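pasting for ref
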Amino acid sequence: MVLTDKTPLATPYFFEDLSRSGQSPALIDARTGQITDYVSLALAVDDRKRVLRERFQGLRPLVFIEARNDPAFFVDYLACLQLGCVLHLVESLNDAKTRELVGHYRPNLLLRGGEADDHLNDRPIDMHPDLTLLLSTSGSTGSPKFVKLSAASLEANARSIAHYLRLNSSERAFHHLKAFYSYGLSVIHSHLAVGASLVLTDASVNETRFWSEFSASDATSFAGVPYTFETLKQMDFAPEAYPSLRYATQAGGRLEATLVKLFAQRFNRAGRAFYVMYGQTEAAPRMSYLPAELAESHPSSIGLAIPGGRLSLIDEEGRDIDEPDRAGELVYEGPNIMMGYAETPQDLSRDDTPLRLITGDTAIRDSLGLFSIVGRSSRFVKPFGTRLNLDEVQTWLKSEYRDVFAVAGDDRLVVIALTRGGEMGAKDIERVAARFSLPTSLFVTRAFETVPTLPNGKLDYASILIVARLISEPPRGGFFERLMGTVKDLLGLSSENFNSVSEMLQSKLSQHALSPHLRFAEIGIDSLAYVGVAIEIESLFDGAPPPNWQGMTIDELEKAHLAHKARVGF
């Protein structure tokens, strides 16, 4: 079953000769209904190139672009690709993290999607001729460490994805992911490669507008990270309700096997396809996919190597593992591998392409040739689809807060461990969340009397996380309460829980104007904040919130919570 056919690279690249797709829709703005066909897009790109050439004056520039889901960004992005610029995509050119990167790399130009551009300098930068794109290694954390990608690697991955998803010019991808995120960027590239359409939106999956725009545009697919599908489960999403929907993809972190099976069943029953995919930015970014017909029967698997790529396992000595069901470190080989990392401007001139990519994940291969991730050998987690280096978070926190001794976490929770007596308040958590571009609901603090360590003296991150989870998500029952009392006594652990719905909402949504008569669905929050609140609602109602809680007012939710506490004897 292992696919080994090498997808031939096309000439020209997917971002060149856009007019080849004629008057087929390229960009559809779901908010305005504006349609830009490929010929019109090509003309707009040509016009933009003429303006940019005058700016560059023969210089091959380093350009930072503010990535938005609007036509102006696409014109800038494609114009720069065609001109041979080296690009870095950012969420905002105005935030502190980006300003740090601008100071570090000194790009020649900053672009804001049709708005006023910042021409910083005419200083030549020594950059490798194959270098095209710089992406952050850990989402939008502002780290100066970039993944270096060539146009050839982007092209190879785009064609491979289009191949296994069976994309053609009739596709209309409902594009809500951010373009500075490698997953979102891969959706863009793979659809441009086949002359398909991108339906642009800024709506979140929990908003009614998302699905009304989806239906109105006859969209054929959408992409999501694990929390997207957790949200859709809570919404009781039914694929058959959307006649134009052909398939959905999931990447950006591990989706629980139970949810993979649930959505595979729902999509199969509706005659649609559900694809689970695995990748890293270092591979531009896709490395494997699980064929839709296997998702229900193999929900724990990441599937097969993408066409043109190869997955394998190695042991601790770097030797290949051939036998099935034996764990080893997952290794990837293919034409989409990065040109190495950059941490300084001087690194931009080198091609450091590795012979193979060591993923840092531990996996097994079964007798069918399907791979499954069984652990991580590195300290990376993927909350909300954003790869986060826990060591990077820990280093930053220790430089800012003297009582922090460790950071532990998984894809759902990041624990800041403090020595007993250490304090970090709500404002501190907001600062941490802002620094790493993640919601405050992801972070918790726990104070320990004794620092948890392993027998070898190293920090016991697993115990820190386990204890934090026991406090954060306590099941009911007398035995558990006695156990938790013992744990608190032994470790001297302190914690704080929300006492009411209003207290929780004020903490999680402090930037929103809340009133008792406002329905939760009317607050207008994004999908990340929605999921964070949903998790807290689950906790407040001990896993059994009102089935229609999203449509209730804050006052109604508060009364329901009081009634719940009375029933369970709080």
